[in-house]
Structure formats: structure tokens, C-alpha cells
TrEMBL record, chain A:
Gene3D superfamilies: 3.40.47.10
SUPFAM superfamilies in alphabetical order: Thiolase-like
Domain Thiolase C-terminal as annotated: residue spans: 265-392
UniProt organism field: Streptomyces erythrochromogenes
Lineage per the UniProt record: Bacteria, Bacillati, Actinomycetota, Actinomycetes, Kitasatosporales
Protein name per UniProt: Lipid-transfer protein
Sequence ranges assigned to domain Thiolase N-terminal in this UniProt record: 5-111
UniProt cross-references to CDD domains, sorted A to Z: SCP-x_thiolase (cd00829)
Record-linked InterPro entries: Thiolase, Thiolase-like, Thiolase_C_2, Thiolase_N
Listed transmembrane segments: none
Automatic annotation (TrEMBL), chain B:
SUPFAM superfamilies in the cross-refs: Nucleic acid-binding proteins
Protein's name in the database: Zinc ribbon domain-containing protein
Species assigned in the record: Streptomyces erythrochromogenes
Location of the ChsH2 rubredoxin-like zinc ribbon domain: 24-56
Domain of life the protein comes from: Bacteria
């Protein structure tokens, strides 16, 4: 028996600052994904919404919110919150329902209308919330954490500001070719260097913006896909949603300290590498089989770390890959062919779904000017606040 | 008239450690498995292989450590960080400090006068008390790191 599910439809609402409700972005993306699949909303047996908890609006109930916007039709509903991993967990929930025989057609939707500037915790006096505490006690924004990682790479691996800038140059070049991206302009290394320092050593153009956007997928059983005449669909072969293992020894958002190693030694490898490893094991393939990857480039420096964590190179060699052009379009293993968060910005519950949209189009061979020739397998990877990890492997 | 000196979070540090005084971060240590927690964990031990049955006792953390990494905040962070929007923004320096004995990395702001130019990965620093912010009634006290024996 196959543990695969088919991706019959993928759709997005363009990223940007549109000033509208996340419900509208999600509905547009859902409609696009259904049209892409050649299915109607009435064909959907289950809807899974990827949630966000910011901004007051009941993103808490995103699944039902999107179902209401599409018109109540009695579908099974699920809502998932896992910070940046919400989208991947929504895909994981949809896949589990299909494999369990609970539904043949599942619509997965994520959308956000993000505030401008730094992400901030919910209001009020909440000293038992680690996200609230790191702002109150330290003023530690997300870019501050990205900068700590970047500075550490410079000290330990010899990465340079120029290496970081090359990631932005590469991703902007890909995003320029993506009609769904918010930023569609080439960027030069000089422009990165000339942009304001946000958190030393990272510049404004090293860090992804916050954005509005929406993304959706129509997932079905393999039998359903065949019954609709789709003999060779893009298939999801693995969804990794692992937590860290104690002691977690790398400082992660929104933590004020790591776990201590007095009682137990740290496991080999990082939390991020364990996310990818779980996906590879489930999919029965490895980094050598990949045609492309989509990773969370919250900062340019962080993308280099992902190269190592998903096994494209050894630890400390990420900068070498970008210098060689291996991860650019046309390179040996293109990464963030969509343009990445550098070109999209963060629309938190949508982004992990958008990554799988990109894999889908690449594996179908319909990615236009950014097409990776003959793409057969891809991985997405990201990490959400509070220890949510996720990666998806899709194949053709 | 005088403002009350109040820790920004209670129980995370002391200004007069029992083992000779001075400013120290306070964590907790599980008596069953030796795991150390900062910020303090008082309800349960988070080591999944802990045999259980232990007590979480308060322990002062190492007074010194080495810089794991560092950065600064060139833009005003959002609330609940407290700053006066009428005043020009003064960047703060943020340090991640590795404590060898505890095998952990702790984040903290640098003492005033310590900028990123004064630091390198591996620089030895010590924890000191400092002021996070003040309002009409309260001086909010926090922990800060500063280079050992350095000019800063
Ligand atoms: Zn214990």
C-alpha cells in the first residue's frame, strides 16, 4: 500500500501589502487551487486551515473561517497552529486523513495579513509567555536572533557579509521570475551592503519582510487522482513534524537560554538537521536525490545553515555552495527557486504551504522561466517558534 | 520619593548571592538528574530521561562565561519592551553567553558602554546588575554582561 497522497491543485494569492483580510487571501488561494485541480468546493470532503494567533482576528479558527468564506457545505474541518510550521502541519493533518480513509479530497489553506515591522507578541502583561518575556526583558526581536546566528557563522566558519549578500542576490533573481512574489526586482550585493544595519551584522536586505499572502493545496488519495484521469500526479511522500530532543543546545526563538548539558549530552546534529533527516527517512530518499529545495530564508545567513541541515553539504560549507552558484537557478541543486522569503516576505501560516506549491509547479514542469529542468524530487524545510519543525518531500 | 528597585522578573537573579555576595543569575537544578534550568523551572524537570522523584532547588549560575555570539538592536523593538518614543533610539547590545559548568547559553543585554566593537566570539564576560528602565515609581533591575577586566 502506498503512503503517498497526490497534489492535484496548488494556488496562491500574490504576496504583498494589500490591506485586506486574511480570509480574502485564503479564499482566493483556495479557489485558485480548486480550479487548478479541476474540482469544485463541493467535491472537498475536508478542509484544514493553518492558523495564526496574531492580530486579534480569530485566525484561531482558520479552518472554519475559510470554510465559511467558501460557503458552508458540511465538510470535515481542522484548524492547526504551529507558528511557522502551521502550513506543514496542516498538510500533515490532511495527509493523515487521506491515508486513514477519512476523506478523498482535502483542501489545505493558509493566509495572513501581517503587521508591518517587527513581529511582536500579543498584548497584555503575560510574564509566563516566553515570547512576551524575550521582548520585555531583552528587546530581542526575531532579527536579533538571526544576527546572533550570522555572527556565530562568521566566527566559526569564516562566512563573510559578501556570502550573506549573495544569498539575497540569488533569491531576488529567482523571485523576479515569480508572478506570486512580492518583490520582483533584481538586487545587487552593493545594494545589500548599502542597506541599513538592523542587527549587526545583518542588513535590512539580509532579513525577510513581513507580508500579506495566501496559499492553498488540494490533496487527494492516489486512487481518487487516478479516477480523475491523473495517472502521474505530483505526490507527497513525507511530512516531517518532529520536535527537538533534550537537551536543545542551540539558542532558538523565543528562548532566553538553551537547555543545559549537565544531565545529558546533546544528540549529534542540530534540531534543524533532525527535521530533514526524519523527512528523508520517511520518503526513502536522501539529499543526493533532490532536484531542488525550498528552505526558510528568514535571513540570508540562515539559508546557508539550512544547506548544511538538509544535507546539501557538510557543516560549515554552506557559503561555499552559494559562492559556487550551486544553489542558484541553473546550479547543481537550486534552493528557493520561488525566490524564498527574501522575495515573498513572511505570511506565517501560508509560507510552508507556498513552499509545497513551488515544489508542485517545479515537479510538473510548469514553473516557467524559473523551471529546474527535469525536476523529480524536492524538499521543503522550515522551523516554527516553540520547537515546531517541519519538512515535506514531494516527488514525481 | 525614591523609586523602588524591582527585578524585571522575580526570582531570576539575586543582587546578593549567598556564596560571597554579588550579582548572580539564579536557576534551578534537579536533584534526581542534575539538569539545570534557566529561566528557573520550579514545577517539573524537563529532562525526558530523568528518573523522577527529585527536587528542583535554586542554584546560582556561573558568574562568568564566554561570548557565544553578539549583536545589537539598531531599531526600537516593539512593546512590551519599554522605551521612550520621544527620545532618539539608543541601540542596545545583546550577548549570548556560554556558561561552561552549566553547559548552556544565556542571552542578556550588555552593560551600558559595551558595543559590538568591544566584543568577539570567545570574549570572557561577567554577569552584573543593571537598570532595564525606570518609570515614576520603579527602577526595573535586570542582568547584564560586561567584558572581564576590559575597558568597557
Ligand atoms: Zn531531573
Amino acid at each position: 500500500m502506498s503512503a503517498e497522497v497526490a497534489v492535484l491543485g496548488a494556488g496562491m494569492h500574490p504576496w504583498g501589502k494589500w490591506g485586506r483580510s486574511f480570509v480574502e487571501y485564503g479564499r482566493t488561494a483556495a479557489r485558485a487551487a480548486l480550479a487548478d485541480a479541476g474540482l469544485g468546493w463541493a467535491d472537498v470532503g475536508s478542509i484544514v486551515g493553518a492558523d495564526t494567533v496574531r492580530s486579534g482576528y480569530p485566525g484561531y479558527v482558520a479552518g472554519a473561517t475559510f470554510a465559511r468564506a467558501l460557503g458552508w457545505q458540511g465538510a470535515r474541518v481542522t484548524s492547526v497552529y504551529a507558528a511557522c510550521a502551521s502550513g506543514a502541519q496542516a498538510i500533515g493533518a490532511a495527509r493523515a486523513q487521506i491515508l486513514a480513509g477519512l476523506a478523498d479530497v482535502v483542501l489545505v489553506v493558509g493566509a495572513d495579513a501581517a503587521p508591518k515591522g517587527f513581529f511582536a507578541p500579543a498584548g497584555g502583561e503575560r510574564p509566563d509567555d516566553p515570547d512576551w518575556l524575550r521582548f520585555r526583558v531583552l528587546g530581542a526581536t526575531n532579527p536579533a536572533y538571526f544576527a546572533l546566528y550570522a555572527r556565530r557563522r562568521m566566527a566559526v566558519h569564516g562566512d563573510t557579509l559578501e556570502d550573506f549578500a549573495q544569498v539575497k542576490v540569488k533569491n531576488a533573481a529567482a523571485g523576479r521570475l515569480n508572478p506570486h512574489a512580492r518583490y520582483r526586482k533584481a538586487v545587487t550585493a552593493d545594494e545589500v551592503a548599502a542597506s541599513a544595519v538592523v542587527a549587526d551584522p545583518l542588513r535590512l536586505l539580509d532579513i525577510c519582510a513581513t507580508s500579506d499572502g495566501g496559499a492553498a493545496l488540494v490533496l487527494t488519495s492516489m486512487d481518487f487522482a487516478r479516477s480523475r484521469g491523473v495517472a502521474d500526479p505530483v505526490r507527497i511522500r513525507a511530512v516531517s513534524t518532529v520536535t527537538p530532543t533534550y537537551p536543545r543546545t542551540v539558542l532558538d526563538l523565543p528562548d532566553i537560554a538553551t537547555d543545559s548539558t549537565t544531565a545529558a549530552d546533546a544528540a549529534a546534529g542540530s534540531f534543524r538537521s533532525s527535521i530533514a533527516r526524519a523527512a528523508y527517512e520517511e520518503a526513502g530518499l536522501g539529499p543526493q536525490d533532490l532536484s531542488l529545495a525550498e528552505v526558510y530564508d528568514l535571513s540570508t545567513a540562515l539559508e546557508l545553515e539550512w544547506y548544511e541541515d538538509i544535507g546539501l553539504c557538510a557543516e560549515g560549507e554552506g557559503a561555499k555552495l552559494v559562492r559556487e552558484g550551486a544553489t542558484a537557478l541553473g546550479g547543481r541543486i537550486p534552493v528557493n527557486t520561488s525566490g524564498g522569503l527574501a522575495s515573498f516576505g513572511e505570511a506565517v501560516p501560508a509560507q510552508a504551504i507556498a513552499q509545497v506549491c513551488e515544489l508542485t509547479w517545479q515537479l510538473r514542469g510548469t514553473a516557467g522561466e524559473r523551471q529546474v529542468p527535469g525536476a523529480r524530487a524536492g524538499i521543503t524545510a522550515n522551523q516554527g517558534l516553540f520547537g515546531h519543525g517541519s519538512a515535506v518531500v514531494a516527488v514525481r | 520619593m525614591a523609586r523602588t528597585r524591582t527585578p524585571v522578573v522575580s526570582g531570576w537573579f539575586t543582587e546578593n548571592a549567598p556564596d560571597g555576595g554579588g550579582f548572580r543569575l539564579l536557576g534551578t537544578r534537579c536533584s534526581a538528574c542534575t539538569a539545570v534550568f534557566f529561566p528557573r523551572e520550579d514545577a517539573y524537570c524537563r529532562n525526558p530521561r530523568c528518573p523522577g522523584g527529585g527536587e528542583l532547588a535554586e542554584v546560582p549560575l556561573s558568574p562568568r562565561g564566554r561570548v557565544w555570539s553578539y549583536t545589537d538592536g539598531r531599531y526600537r523593538p516593539p512593546a512590551p519592551y519599554v522605551s521612550d518614543p520621544a527620545e532618539p533610539w539608543e541601540p542596545y547590545t545583546l550577548l549570548a553567553v556560554e556558561l561552561e559548568a552549566e553547559g548552556m547559553v544565556v542571552l542578556g543585554q550588555a552593560a551600558p558602554g559595551t558595543g559590538v566593537a568591544d566584543l568577539a566570539v570567545g570574549t570572557e564576560v561577567e554577569v552584573v546588575g543593571g537598570v532595564l528602565n525606570e518609570d515614576a515609581e520603579t527602577t526595573w533591575v535586570t542582568w547584564q554582561f560586561k567584558p572581564v577586566g576590559g575597558a568597557a
